[in-house]
Design goal:
With 194 residues, this protein is an alpha/beta fold. It has a single domain, classed as Metal-dependent hydrolases (TIM Barrel, Alpha-Beta Barrel), CATH 3.20.20. The chain contains seven helices and eight strands. The strands form two sheets. A six-stranded parallel beta sheet has the order 3-4-5-6-7-8. A two-stranded parallel sheet has the order 1-2. The longest helix is centred in the middle third of the chain and has 18 residues. The protein binds zinc ion.
Length: 194
């Protein structure tokens, strides 16, 4: 069974984690009540997410940071891992995350550089790669330097099959698909058996 760590189209036969959180796209107009609502229901979920910062949008940065920190507080309080959405905000996200001790951190849809991948990996953060990875030579290099014990794959909001992502990663890494499956299953079990 393949791990698809982050998908908006859950399919049977795939292993994934359930998440609850407010996306940075929705940062404007968030009330304390919506944070409390997450705090009340998040125990039933595997992780808090997608949360983070997206500086490629026009959404107010202060509002995004406030929302991100509030949800990290919830994660810390409930001892939950987090699934991070990070676009054009790597330094800020890394800086904020350094103040929180969480069971696990997964950067989903990672499209950063190999240097950024190594910095995240040095802190033990997981990196999940999806279809956007293979459109960018820089992100393909990031995939190549990611340690196996921190690796995940995902389909995110696309309707492509997770098999396609494993296939592309297998080609790029020169590692057979069954071996990649084995590695991501081990990683999956590590974060879900905490
Ligand atoms: Zn997503």
């Amino acid at each position: 069974m393949k791990v698809n760590i982050h998908t908006h189209h859950r399919k049977s036969g795939e292993r994934t984690i359930s998440t609850l959180g407010i996306h940075p796209y929705d940062a404007e107009g968030v009330t304390t009540d919506s944070i409390f609502a997450i705090e009340r229901t998040a125990l039933e979920y595997d992780a808090i997410g997608e949360i983070g910062l997206d500086y490629s949008t026009n959404i107010n940065k202060e509002a995004q940071i406030l929302l991100f920190k509030a949800q990290l507080e919830v994660a810390r309080h409930l001892n939950k891992g987090v699934v991070i959405h990070c676009v054009k905000a790597f330094e800020e996200v890394m800086n904020i995350l350094s103040r929180y001790n969480l069971p696990f951190v997964i950067f989903h849809g990672f499209i950063g550089s190999p240097e950024q991948a190594l910095r995240a990996a040095a802190r033990g953060y997981y990196l999940s790669f999806g279809h956007r990875t293979f459109r960018s030579p820089k992100s393909i290099e990031a995939l190549k330097v990611t340690p196996a014990n921190l690796l995940f794959f995902e389909t995110d909001d696309s309707t492509i099959n997770i098999e396609q992502i494993y296939g592309q990663a297998s080609e790029v890494l020169g590692i057979p698909v069954p071996m990649l499956e084995c590695v991501t299953n081990e990683n999956f079990e590590r974060i879900t058996n905490l």
